[in-house]
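Case study 2.
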Amino acid sequence: MLVLAGIIVLHITTIILLLVATIDNAWWVTDTVSTDLWSRLELSNSVWHYTNLKNYPEEYLQTVQATSVLACIFAILALFVFVAQLFTLPKGQRFTFTGILQLIACLSIMIAASIYTAELHATDTEGGYGHSYVLAWISFVLTFLLAVIYLVLRKKSE
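Prediction:
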């Protein structure tokens, strides 16, 4: 029972991290600019001003946006499938479908963060990656860990 609670807490934590990484505005930060996957905030006269993302290759940006959203969707779906499998899966069977969904979420966030790293700020010399970017990579590790756990985990035959 404690293992089950730990898995569910880890899964919910991973979902929250994925959502924060996708929504929050700190993928690339400087002293006067904060950029996320959707917009750019520029500081002028002590006020943050919202601007559209310009000078970004649109095909890469849309790929990063889409795969980040897909990672969130697949992680949430995997949680619902896991709970459903707890009640419907025969005893002794593995949580394979949940593990596959979690693995797809893992690959999605890895693709998003990798493309963001390689294509969107490869030549920038000012600024650095923000906490949302770091959360995306932490989410990748946690979703991979959960995928392995689900693929190995068997339903107890009590």
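The CA atoms of residues 30 and 127 lie 4 Å apart.
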